[in-house]
Write a structure and sequence with these properties.
The complex is a heterotrimer of chains A (68), B (253) and C (369). Chain A has two helices and four strands; from the N terminus they run βαββαβ. Chain A is globular, with a radius of gyration of 11 Å. Chain A has helices at residues 16-20, 54-58; strands at 3-6, 26-28, 41-43, 64-67. Chain A has 68 residues and is α+β, with helices and mostly antiparallel strands. Chain B is of the alpha/beta class. Chain B is built from nine helices and eight strands. Chain B has helices at 29-42, 77-87, 99-105, 107-115, 156-159, 165-169, 186-204, 219-222, 226-240, and strands at 8-10, 49-53, 68-71, 92-98, 121-126, 175-182, 209-215, 244-248. The longest helix of chain B is centred in the last third of the chain and has 19 residues, at 186-204. Chain C has two domains: 4-193 and 225-236, Rossmann fold; 241-362, Rossmann fold (3-Layer(aba) Sandwich). By secondary structure, chain C is of the alpha/beta class. The N and C termini of chain C lie far apart (54 Å). The radius of gyration of chain C is 21 Å and the shape is globular. The longest helix of chain C has 21 residues, at 217-237. Chain C has a seven-stranded mixed β-sheet with strand order 3-2-4-5-7-6-13, with helices on both faces. Chain C has twelve helices and 16 strands. In chain C, helix 1 packs parallel to helix 2 (34-43) and helix 10 packs across helix 11. Classes of the chains: A alpha+beta (68), B alpha/beta (253), C alpha/beta (369). Chains in contact: A-B, B-C. At the B-C interface, strand 2, strand 3, helix 2 and helix 4 of B face helix 3, helix 4 and strand 9 of C. Strand 4 (64-67) of chain A pairs antiparallel with strand 1 (8-10) of chain B, so a sheet runs across the interface.
Chain lengths: 68, 253, 369
């Protein structure tokens, strides 16, 4: 199973990973507020992840790590 | 026995430090910055690289790259890079500059480093606005584009026309590579990565001046969401600044 | 070595810079420093160095900034209007603690001025080479030999204190020929290492950063204060001046560079007439040799600053004298070199107890009243 880790120290909640995820499994986590005051992104359904890497490719803050 | 494939498909490159950038949420600077770092890493150049940060949003890029870094006066990065390269030609020298820095106050330094065929790699972020100072008209601001200092839209009769940097530089003999890319989609990011790698490869081969112009967004000063800014870039910037290879000394090889 | 050769001042400076281990020169054409650049253009490429004619003075000084960041000895040369343009880069060098030699073959100003000898860049050199709190070493040769010797010293001081150094000369010194004994050459490889330089990490250390920016006020103030402490230390130990006939002098003439050569003739003429006149010749303009002036305050009754300007160094003389004695001024501007006879008139006036600030165009000196 894929492992998609968003490092909330880097994530600024811009949402580009959400916009570019073809499976719609990246979402903003409204229950978490980062130290800088953003709602970070997180992956809500790893089973559906196709490892396309779109989220990490478009993340301006290099906050996403992806493992197979 | 075949080496086991690493389970890691994507992670931060060691050519970046662990610092959080100062870029606004959704600003594409971070993507290009990562591509530059990854290129250095993949080509094995990080240990001999010296980067030059500009004045502008990337001014403190020296904190984000783990290679040696020099901060330059506004527009002077190509001159500073020239000094660095001439003093130690074995090192890999790159500048990372925005449109105001490269195409306005530093245009003389840009053109002359290019025409000398200075063996450096210039990464040029074109987002059609001055970001750091709060959204003023840039040399690449589009006709009609509203900025803080073109509040009625850029009137080319009064403010002049935007500059297409790659086209301009492509006429100079010293230029080895002049390529415009954009980072608005995952596939375009991958194309941009290739172009940036090529720039560094050309430097390694001693071919001369390489510039990779990256069409970029400024959600904050454009006043749009990050995603909307990408649409605006596609609809407005790409027609005026078409991506493509404007000069490649190895074209056709 | 020890053999004297006849050389032009500009060329002697260039050759001495090469012998100091400088292999990189970035400049832009301007009169009257041309021989210096031409000498470098001829020599440096043959020894694996760089002579690069930049697109502008601004670019040239920023190339110096880059090469200095890479850890090599590097220089540029220019003349007054060109040095104004370099002000930005010099400020950045100060802010980033980078050494490097800037030669200013001072010409008449302001604006395009003239190409004749002048000392009207004293303020710019010692007060405001660029924006911000900062200084550069300013060394003032008065002979072709000193053009060579001070070039070596400028590189050594710059490296030791991590500061830019300026040689402030003029067309008279640049163009004149005198016998000169060249210092032994230094191999650049034998120079002390610069562990702060951006030479590439080679994977052996954390990254070096050459930078003048600090967005946190306290951090910036700490940096500025550290630099200021360095300046105070330099003022304590690096002042250099030449004293002539000062032991019993009632009047001490203060003059540097080309003006000191004329002043010396006038002082000697005064001595021949039995007048008790001496001279202090500042060799370091920054740090200004305040100690030499303070020392002679005990015996001297008055001071006279002689300059090729409307009166700039005289400010520093007054600061050093600190109101203890009257300080007068005599000078020419616009590229006119005063005659020893004129200076002698001023000397006699000052000895007679007059306190004045005389500029020739409104002086009544020669009219005799």
């Amino acid at each position: 199973m894929a492992k998609v880790t968003v490092d909330i120290e880097y994530c600024k909640g811009c949402g580009l990973c959400v916009d570019f995820c073809p499976e719609g499994i990246m979402q903003m986590d409204n229950d978490v507020i980062t130290q800088k005051g953003y709602h970070p992104a997180h992956c809500v359904d790893l089973d559906k992840c196709t490892l396309c890497l779109n989220c990490a490719t478009m993340c301006p803050d290099v906050a996403i790590r992806i493992e197979r | 026995m075949a080496a086991e494939k690493s389970p890691v498909l994507f992670e931060r490159t060691s050519a970046l430090t662990d610092k959080v950038t100062n870029y606004c949420p959704g600003c594409l600077h971070g993507i290009t910055q990562r591509l530059v770092a990854e290129s250095l890493d993949r080509l094995g150049l990080a240990d001999t690289a010296v980067g030059v940060s500009p004045v502008g949003c990337a001014v403190i890029a020296y904190e984000f790259y783990s290679c040696d870094m020099v901060q330059a006066a506004h527009g002077r990065a190509p001159a500073v890079a020239t000094g660095l390269k001439r003093a130690r030609p074995e090192n890999t020298i790159f500048t990372y500059q925005g449109d105001g820095d490269l195409a306005s106050i530093g245009m003389a330094e840009t053109i002359h480093a290019a025409t000398r065929g200075e063996n450096i790699t210039v990464i040029f972020i074109n987002n059609a606005i001055y970001g750091m100072t709060g959204g003023q008209m840039a040399p690449t601001t589009l006709p009609g584009q509203i900025t803080q200092t073109s509040p009625y839209g850029r009137d080319v009769k009064a403010a002049g026309n935007p500059i297409r940097v790659c086209e301009l530089l492509s006429s100079l003999d010293g230029v080895a590579l002049a390529q415009r890319v954009t980072v608005d989609t995952p596939s375009n990011v991958r194309k941009a990565a290739k172009a940036i790698r090529k720039g560094f490869e050309y430097q390694r081969e001693g071919l001369g001046f390489s510039i990779i112009e990256v069409l970029s967004s400024c959600p904050t000063n454009w006043g749009m969401t990050p995603y909307k800014a990408l649409e605006w870039l596609r609809e407005n910037m790409i027609p005026y600044y078409p991506p493509g290879v404007y000069k490649d000394v190895k074209a056709g090889e | 070595m020890s053999e004297k050769i006849l050389m032009k001042g500009n060329e002697a400076l260039a050759e001495a810079a090469i012998r100091a281990g400088c292999r990189h020169f970035f400049g832009y054409p301007i009169t009257p420093q041309s021989e210096l650049a031409a000498y470098m253009a001829k020599r440096l490429p043959k020894m694996g160095g760089t002579y690069l004619q930049a697109e502008s003075e601004v670019a040239a000084i920023n190339m110096v900034y880059g090469a200095s960041a890479a850890g090599v000895r590097v220089m540029t040369s220019s003349s007054s209007p060109g040095v104004s343009l370099k002000g930005e880069g010099i400020s950045y060098m100060i802010g980033a603690d980078l050494p490097g030699l800037i030669v200013n073959i001072n010409r008449g100003g302001p604006g395009l001025g003239s190409i004749q000898p002048s000392q009207a860049d004293y303020w710019m050199a010692t007060r405001a080479t660029g924006h911000g709190d900062g200084h550069v070493f300013v060394l003032a040769p008065s002979t072709v030999q000193e053009m060579a010797d001070l070039a070596r010293m400028a590189f050594d001081l710059g490296d030791r204190y991590r500061m830019p150094a300026m040689i402030l000369a003029d067309g008279l010194l640049g163009q004149m020929m005198e016998p000169v004994e060249m210092p032994d050459p230094i191999n650049p490889a034998d120079l002390p290492p610069k562990p702060w330089a951006t030479t590439g990490t080679k994977g052996e250390r954390e990254h070096n950063i050459v930078n003048s920016l600090s967005l946190v006020s306290q951090v910036l103030e700490d940096m500025v204060l550290e630099r200021n402490e360095r300046y105070q230390r330099i003022k304590e130990v690096e002042q250099i001046a030449q004293l002539e006939h000062t032991e019993d002098a009632e009047l001490v003439v203060v003059a540097y560079g080309a003006a000191s050569r004329i002043a010396r003739s006038a002082v000697n003429a005064a001595r021949e007439e039995g007048l008790k006149v001496g001279m202090i010749r500042p060799i370091t303009l920054w740090p200004f040799p305040t100690k030499a002036i303070e020392d002679v305050c005990a015996t001297a009754q008055a001071f006279l600053s002689v300059e090729l300007s409307t009166g700039q160094m005289v400010d520093d003389v007054k600061l050093a004298v600190s109101g203890r004695r009257p300080v007068s001024f005599f000078g020419h501007s616009g590229g006119i070199v005063p005659t020893p006879a004129e200076v002698l008139v001023a000397i006699k006036k000052a000895l007679a107890g007059e306190v004045f600030h005389i500029l020739p165009f409104h002086s009544k000196l020669e009219a005799g009243d």
